[in-house]
Amino acid sequence: MSRKAEVVRNTKETQIRVAVDLDGTGASKVSTGIGFFDHMLDSFARHGGIDIEVEAKGDLHIDMHHTVEDTGIVLGQAIKQALDGFKGVRRFGHAYIPMDETLSRCALDLSNRPYLIWNVEFRTPKVGDMDTELFKEFHHAFAMNAGACVHLDLLRGTNSHHIAESGFKALARALRQAVELDPKTHGHAPSTKGVL
Known about the structure:
It is found in: Cytoplasm. The protein is of the alpha+beta class. Helix content is 34%, strand content 31%. Helix 1 runs parallel beside helix 4 and helix 2 (65-83) packs parallel to helix 3. The chain starts with a strand and ends in a 17-residue tail after the last helix.
C-alpha cells in the first residue's frame, strides 16, 4: 500500500508543489525562499519520518505571510490525501520535545475534525527574517487541511528559535505516531463511526 501524494496549488500570490511519502525515511527537499522556514520544514520531515518535497514561490516582496500559510495548506492537503481516509492508522499521537531551556508538547488526533489550540508565545517578533506570528498561521493552515486536531503548548522557554523548532519537532513526532499503521484496526478507520 503506497501512502504517497502530490498536491499543487497556484494562486496569484503563491505557486506551491508538495509531495509526501508517509512511509519514507525523513528525507527532505525544501525551497520556499525563507531560510528559517526551510530549516523548520527539513526538521519536520526528519523527525516525522516523512519524505517531503516542497517547492514554493510566493510574493516575498510583500511579506512572508502568503508563502508560509499556503505551504501549510498544501502540506496538510498532501498528508490528508496520502492518508486515504485515515484507514488503518493509530490516529492519535503526542510528543514532548525539550530544546535547551524550552519544552514543547503536542497532542494530535487525525479525526477529520480539524482544530488548533495554540498556547505558544514568543519573546521576540522575529526569528532571523521570519515573523514569529507566522508560526501560528502555518500550524493553523496545516491542521485545517490535514483534518487534524492539534494542541500545541509551550510549557517553558525564552529563546524564539528554540520555541519555534521544538514546536515543529513536537508536531512532527506526534504526527509520526498518529500516521503509523496499526494492525489492530484491520485497515479500517479507527472510529466507532467506521469512518473519519
